[in-house]
C-alpha cells in the first residue's frame, strides 16, 4: 500500500513539476539536474515531459560520492573547475529557451563530515555556476527547483531513514495532498502576487528586522519591485522557479545594511551545515562572521568576489506557509527558506528593477556576484517593518501574521 | 562479512580499472560513462584516479528509465538525437587524450520488454556514437570497458537477484581472485599478444567456421594484423580496452563472407535480447536475418548505413578464457564475447591494417559504419581453421583448444 501511495505521490509530483513548475511547452527541450538517487522521480518527470510534447529530456546526474573523491583527493585547481560541456549545456539551453528542472534532496553533511571545510567550500564549479545564474536570472530558462525525499535526507532530519514521514511533510508543503495541486498553487501564487503589489506600491525605503540576535535595517533601492509566485521568461513563458514557493522578495541596496543578523535554523552551504550563524553589517558589507559550526565555509563563500559579502535578496514569509505548517526543519534551503523570512548574500536580481536600465543597476545599488546563498532569519519571533522615506514605520509581519493590507 | 568482501572486491576492481584498464597517467583527465546504479564502483574509480593524480574525473551517468521514457513517449526525431554536449564532451576528451572508462551491467531486457522493438533499436544517439567510435578507434582515448554487477543483472542471468553469485563469477573472470590481479592480466596479455604474432605471421587468406548452424568462410585482407591483450593510443599510452579481455581479433574483408552463421548465445542489442540469430552471407553482405526473438532490432541496426550489413571483426577465444571457465552466460556482450569466438557486423578497425595508408583502407576491403555489434558464434562446438592463399587449411581451434603454435 505504501508503494502505491508513494507511486501516486511521485506521479502527482512529476505532473506538478512539468505542468506547473516549468510549465513545459510542446516542442520545448527540458534539461534536468539531479543526483543519481533521484532517478525514480526523474524517470516520471521525463515521461510526463514527453507526454506534454517535450522535444528531448536531457538529464545530468551528479553523485555526492564522486564530489567527495574530488574534495578529498583532487588537485587544488580542479576544485572550482567546470568541465566545458557543463557550461556549453547550460548556454545552449539558455539560447533555445529550454525548460530546466533542478532536483535537490539528500544530505551531504554526514558524507562530507570528514572533509576539510575550506576545500569543500571551494569545491564549486564556477563557470558552470555563472552560466546557470545567467540563464535563470536573465529569464532565458523556464526553470523550477524541486526536491526528492531520499532516505539520507530523512535521516538528516529525523535521525532515522523515515522516508514516509519526510514524504508526508513534503507532500503537504507541495500541496500534493490537495485534490488539484495545480489549482492550489495557482491560488497561492495569486495571493503572493497580491502581496507583491502591496509592497511595491508602498515603495518602502528600508526593511527593519528585530528579533533574538537580530537588529538590522536594510535599505531598498528607489524603483524596486517585489516578486513572488510566478515567474516569466523573456519569451513570456510563465513558470514557478521554486516548488514549494511561499516567499515575496526583492533585492536591497548593497551598501545600505546596518546591524546584526542571526540565522534562525541551520542551513546547508555546499555540503557544510552552518549552525548558529551571526553576521554584523556596516555600510552594507558583512564585516563580522561568527558561527557554532561552518564559519570557515561561510568565509570562503564570502571571499568569492567583491559582491559576495553584500546582500542580494530580502524575502518575507508568513505563518500561512505550508512548509512552515509542517513544523519540520528540512535542512534543505528550498524548503526552509519557504518556511521563514530570509535573506541572501551574493548576487541581486536585475528583474527587481524593471524600469531602470541594466547599465545603471550597479550605480543604483544592486549587488552583483557569482554566489547567492539564502539563509533563514526567523518566523514568529521576528518583527519585520517597512520604513518609509519620511521615517514612518509600517508593520509587515508580527508573530508570523501578515499585517500589510491594501 | 559479505559487505567487507564486496568492498574489498570493489576496491581491487577500481584499482585494476584505473591502473591496468586505462593505465591513468598523473595529470590526465578521466571521463566515465556509467549508469546511476553503478555509482558505488564509480566513486571508488574516482578516488583511485585522484590518488594516481587525475586532473579531473568527469562522470556522465545515464539511466535506463529515462531512456525508456524517450522510447515510449518521445518524438521520432529524438530517438537517434545526441544532445550537443555529449558530442562536445567526447571530442574534447579525444583532443586532450583523456582516459575513458565505460561501465555496463544491468539488464534492460525486463525493463524494455514492453517497448516497440523498432523504436528501441532506433533509440541510439548517432552523433555521440560516431564521436565515441572516432575517439576509441583513432587511438585518441586511453579507454577501458568494464561492468558492474547489479541486482537487475543478476536476475537476468540467474532468475533471482543473487548479486553475490554474479560477483563470484565476475571476480573470477576479472582475475580479482588472484593475489596480484594486475600481474595476472599482464601475463594473460603477453599470451594473447603471442597468439597475435603467430596469426599475423601466418597471414591467412581466410578464416573458416564449422559448427551447429554455422558454415562460413570469411576472407581476410592482405596485410592485416591480429590484435589482442594491450592497446596503445596515439600518444603511446598502453591500456586494456576491455576488462576482461580474452580475444584475439582482426577486421576481415567486407566483401568476402559466404555461408551461414548461428549465434550461440543470446545477446543484448541496445536493450533487446536477440535469441537464436541466424545470418546468411553472400558477397560479404548479410542477405538473410532470422531469429527467435529480436530480428526486428537486428534488421534496424543493419539498416544504419551501407557498412552495417558487412562484417567488421572476427575474434577468436579459446577454452582457457577465465570468462568461459565460469560457465555463466552473462547476457552482457563484454563478458560473453570473451568466453566464445565471435564476430561483429559494422565498422572495421583501421589499426588492423597498420602498413596500409588509411586512404586505401576501403579499397582494400576494410568495412566502415556507424555501428559495430559483436555477437557470439561458439566455443567448444566450433571448429575454426585458417585458410592459406594456396588453399591449405590450418586448424586454429578444436574443442575449445588452441591449435596454432610457432
Walk me through what this model shows.
The structure is a homodimer of 406-residue chains. Chain A is of the alpha+beta class. The first copy, chain A, folds into two domains: 3-181, Thermophilic metalloprotease-like (3-Layer(aba) Sandwich); 195-227 and 247-402, no CATH class. Chain A has 14 helices and 21 strands. Chain A has helices at 2-21, 39-52, 64-73, 84-95, 109-112, 117-122, 126-137, 151-158, 163-173, 181-202, 295-302, 322-325, 333-336, 361-364, and strands at residues 29-35, 56-62, 99-104, 142-147, 206-211, 214-220, 227-228, 231-232, 238-239, 248-250, 252-262, 267-269, 272-274, 278-282, 285-290, 311-316, 341-346, 372-378, 383-387, 393-398, 401-402. In chain A, the strands form five sheets. Chain A has an eight-stranded antiparallel sheet. A five-stranded antiparallel sheet of chain A has the order 7-10-16-17-18, covered by helices on one side. A four-stranded parallel sheet of chain A has the order 2-1-3-4. In chain A, helix 1 packs across helix 2 and helix 4 (84-95) packs parallel to helix 7 (126-137). The model of chain A has no long low-confidence stretch (mean pLDDT 95).
Amino acid at each position: 500500500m505504501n508503494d502505491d501511495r508513494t507511486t501516486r505521490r511521485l506521479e502527482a509530483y512529476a505532473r506538478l513539476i512539468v505542468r506547473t513548475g516549468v510549465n513545459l511547452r510542446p516542442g520545448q527541450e527540458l534539461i534536468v539536474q539531479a543526483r543519481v538517487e533521484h532517478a525514480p522521480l526523474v524517470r516520471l518527470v521525463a515521461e510526463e515531459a514527453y507526454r506534454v510534447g517535450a522535444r528531448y529530456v536531457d538529464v545530468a546526474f551528479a553523485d555526492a560520492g564522486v564530489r567527495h573523491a574530488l574534495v578529498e583527493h583532487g588537485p587544488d585547481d580542479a576544485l572550482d573547475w567546470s568541465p566545458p560541456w557543463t557550461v556549453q549545456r547550460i548556454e545552449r539551453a539558455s539560447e533555445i529557451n529550454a525548460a530546466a528542472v533542478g532536483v535537490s534532496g539528500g544530505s551531504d553533511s554526514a558524507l562530507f563530515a570528514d572533509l576539510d571545510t575550506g576545500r569543500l567550500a571551494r569545491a564549486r564549479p564556477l563557470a558552470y555556476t555563472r552560466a546557470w545564474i545567467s540563464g535563470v536570472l536573465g529569464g532565458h530558462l523556464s526553470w523550477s527547483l524541486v526536491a526528492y525525499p531520499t532516505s539520507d535526507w530523512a535521516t538528516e532530519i529525523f535521525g532515522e531513514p523515515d522516508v514516509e514521514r519526510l514524504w508526508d511533510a513534503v507532500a503537504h508543503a507541495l500541496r500534493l495532498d490537495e485534490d488539484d495541486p495545480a489549482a492550489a498553487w495557482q491560488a497561492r501564487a495569486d495571493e503572493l502576487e497580491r502581496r507583491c503589489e502591496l509592497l511595491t506600491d508602498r515603495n518602502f525605503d528600508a526593511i527593519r528586522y528585530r528579533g533574538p540576535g537580530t537588529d538590522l535595517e536594510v535599505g531598498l533601492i528607489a524603483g524596486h519591485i517585489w516578486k513572488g509566485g510566478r515567474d516569466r521568461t523573456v519569451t513570456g513563458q510563465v513558470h514557478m522557479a521554486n516548488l514549494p514557493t511561499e516567499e515575496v522578495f526583492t533585492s536591497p541596496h548593497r551598501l545600505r545594511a546596518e546591524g546584526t543578523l542571526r540565522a534562525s535554523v541551520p542551513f546547508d552551504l555546499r555540503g557544510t551545515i552552518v549552525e548558529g550563524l551571526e553576521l554584523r553589517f556596516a555600510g552594507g558589507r558583512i564585516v563580522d562572521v561568527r558561527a557554532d559550526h561552518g564559519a570557515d565555509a561561510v568565509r570562503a563563500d564570502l571571499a568569492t568576489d567583491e559582491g559576495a559579502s553584500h546582500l542580494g535578496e530580502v524575502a518575507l514569509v508568513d505563518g500561512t506557509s505550508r512548509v512552515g505548517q509542517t513544523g519540520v526543519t528540512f535542512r534543505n534551503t528550498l524548503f526552509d527558506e519557504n518556511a521563514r523570512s530570509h535573506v541572501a548574500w551574493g548576487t541581486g536580481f536585475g528583474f527587481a528593477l524593471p524600469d531602470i536600465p541594466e547599465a545603471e543597476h550597479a550605480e543604483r545599488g544592486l549587488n552583483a556576484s557569482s554566489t547567492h546563498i539564502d539563509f533563514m532569519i526567523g518566523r514568529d519571533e521576528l518583527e519585520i517593518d517597512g520604513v518609509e522615506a519620511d521615517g514612518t514605520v509600517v508593520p509587515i509581519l508580527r508573530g508570523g501574521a501578515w499585517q500589510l493590507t491594501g
